[in-house]
Amino acid sequence: MKDCIFCKIVNNEIPAEKVYEDDDILAFEDINPKAPVHILLIPKQHFASLNEIPKDQKEILSHLMLTARKIASEKKIGKKGYRIVLNTGKDSGQEVFHIHLHLFGGRRMTWPPG
Ligand code: 5GP
Ligand code: ZN
Q: CA 19, CA 14: separation in Å to the nearest integer?
């Protein structure tokens, strides 16, 4: 989608530190990390948020989640623990309206989130 920063990363129009890629999804380092491990996972196809994922494409959600699990294991945080965050809409703090999972780890997370 034009003017979407994550679509530009998918299309290699702006650079990113990629950690995983296949035909359907991409994972890359967050530009402003909030934890020692902070990776974003996105579908290559543009969906603004969870609210826009069609029911007939729900497999993309499990693919994102299980890839986050795989990356957590590769980054050696799989056993110590990690947090996956999916902000949806303004009240959640979503700033980039191309759906993305945050994978956080490498430090003790606090609860409840802010
Ligand atoms: P949100 O608040 O929408 O859930 O999170 C957006 C995330 O995208 C933020 O953690 C922010 O640091 C990250 N981000 C924004 N622009 C860029 C960019 O151009 N490149 C990368 N790698 N991350 C970005
Ligand atoms: Zn997009």
A: 15
The answer as to whether 114 is a domain residue is: no
Ligand 1 center to residue 99 CA distance, Å? 11
- Tens-digit pLDDT profile for residues 17-65: 999 999 999 999 999 999 999 999 999 999 999 999 999 999 999 999 9
Q: How remote is the CA of residue 20 from the centroid of ligand 2, in Å?
A: 17
Helices then strands, counting H and E runs in the chain, come out as: 2, 5
84: in domain: yes
Ligand 1, residue 38: give the atom nearest the CA: 10
Upstream peptide bond of 33 is cis (omega within 30 degrees of 0): no
* pLDDT confidence bin for 109, thresholds 50/70/90: very high
Q: DSSP state, 76? A: T
Residue among 11, 96, 101 whose CB has most ligand 1 atoms within 8 A, to mutate: 96
Q: Is the pLDDT confidence value at 114 over 90?
A: no
Ligand nearest to C-alpha 48: 2
Is residue 46 part of the annotated active site? The answer reads no
Q: Residue 27 belongs to a domain with what CATH number?
A: 3.30.428.10
